[in-house]
Structures are given as C-alpha cells and as structure tokens.
Design brief:
One of its GO terms (molecular function) is hexosyltransferase activity. This protein has 253 residues and is α/β, with parallel strands linked by helices. It has 12 helices and 8 strands. The strands form 2 sheets. Strands 4-3-8-7-5-6 form a 6-stranded parallel sheet, with helices on both faces. The protein has a two-stranded antiparallel sheet with strand order 1-2. Helix 8 links the parallel strand 7 and strand 8 (191-194).
Length: 253
C-alpha cells in the first residue's frame, strides 16, 4: 500500500515580506482545534490592507504577524496582490463571519470564551447575545475595556485562572492586537483574537459591514462617509500597487 502524504491544513505565504495564511473554510475547523491543542501562545489576526501596510513599516507589528497562529486576509487587495505575484491564492474572510465561524466551532466542542473590552453595558449585552446564539459555549469571564493601568495585572491573572479556549478582545484594550502580543507568554491555553468593534456589534450598538459592500471590496466606504479625510487612504492604496509592480519586475518575492 502506498504511503499517502497529508496536505497541511494551511499554507503560509509571504506577500511583500508580510505573512498571510492560505486556509480554506473546509479546513478551518481542524486548524482551530490544532491551534487550541498547542501549548504555544495563540493569536489570530484579521489582516486588512491598512494593517498589512503597517506591518511593512512597523517592525513590532511585523513580528506580531510572524508570530501569529493564523493571519487571515480580509482585504480583496491582498488576494489580488498574491495572485499578481504568482503566489497561492488566499481565501478572503469577512471579519464578522469569520468570528461567527470560530464561535460555532468552539460550541461544537463545548469550549469556553472570555470577553474583554468595550463598556460595561455593551459587554454584558454582547455576552448574553453570544450565549443565546451559541448556547453550548461556556462563558468563563469578562472584563471591560478602558480600565486603569493599575489593575492590568489583575485582569491578566483573571484570564489565566479562567483558562478560556478563546478570548475575544475589542475596543478599550490599550494597543489592541499589540496588547495580546505583549502579554502572549503569559497565556498558553487560549486563542486570542482582536476586532475593534466586535463586542459592540454583538451588543447591537454598532452595525457590521454589509455582505454586499464586503464582497465588492468596499468595506472602507462607511469609514470614509463617517470621516471624509479617510479618502486619503487612496494614497496608501496607490503605494501598495507600486510595491506590487516593483516586486514583480525585480522578482523580489
């Protein structure tokens, strides 16, 4: 009988020297459970184009991305860039839908979640709404954001003691993803994921990006309508495209 070589669940590629993971929806469940079984620090990053460019210019953030268990692209431009440079085509995920998928996987295996961030009322409402939607998930704790620095060690100790499978981090945690990276060695049991407004979305205090806008790659449009100065994001987009052309011409990787 011939030996069969199992294909890895994910493939890590480097786009302009920034890591991105290629993982299909079919393999996501197995990969999440693989990550949970590891004793290493665990962080999932939902990578927008703007965060991608931040990784290009910020060494600390770039190291954060390299150390992450999963780097999930959320921007259509990142998918296009990978294809343009002849790399494997990543799967693009809507941040809200991705988090829902992860929560569904955790519920299937009766895992636990800890909620960290936003204001008290939003936090309580978000927790209740998640528990109603995923009744077999165990909520093992919560802590609001916008807290005084003096109690941070108590928060860390509380998360350590509750040992959740998944820590959902939102607004009000100083540094967001960088907070997770900074304290990663203090947690080995939990997957951490930061998404700025996710708890307020679960609390129905903020609206999520519509599927139609996301599918068209226009997820930045509501931000521009809210703050017209963000129209200048176009210059970052143009710079990204210049970099792609340079890397392709000179075969830089």
């Amino acid at each position: 009988m011939e030996n069969t070589i199992e294909k890895p669940l994910k493939q890590r590629i480097f786009l302009l020297k920034i890591p991105i993971d290629v993982i299909s929806p079919e393999n996501l469940e197995a990969e999440i459970m693989n990550i949970l079984s590891s004793e290493e620090p665990k962080q999932i990053v939902l990578l927008s184009l703007w965060d991608f460019l931040r990784g290009r210019r910020n060494g600390e953030y770039r190291n954060l991305l390299k150390s992450a268990s999963l780097v999930i692209p959320t921007s259509k431009s990142l998918i296009r860039g990978a294809v343009f440079l002849g790399k494997p085509k990543p799967y693009r995920y809507n941040p809200f839908s991705f988090i829902i998928k992860v929560l569904g996987i955790l519920e299937k295996y009766n895992k636990s979640v800890y909620f960290f961030g936003t204001r008290k009322q939003s936090l309580l409402t978000a927790e209740n709404n998640v528990k109603k939607t995923f009744p077999r998930i165990r909520s093992v704790g919560r802590f609001t954001g916008f807290y005084p620095k003096s109690i941070e060690n108590d928060i860390i100790l509380g998360i350590q003691k509750s040992a959740p499978s998944f820590v959902l981090v939102s607004d009000g945690v100083p540094g967001g993803e960088k907070w997770i990276y900074k304290h990663r060695r203090q947690f080995t049991k939990s997957i951490f994921l930061w998404s700025s407004s996710i708890l307020d979305i679960f609390a129905e205090r903020k609206k999520r990006i519509s599927d139609s806008l996301f599918d068209k790659g226009l997820e930045v449009l509501p931000q521009i309508l809210k703050n017209p100065l963000k129209i200048f994001f176009i210059f970052r987009y143009l710079w990204y495209n210049i970099l792609l052309v340079v890397y392709r011409i000179f075969r830089l990787g």
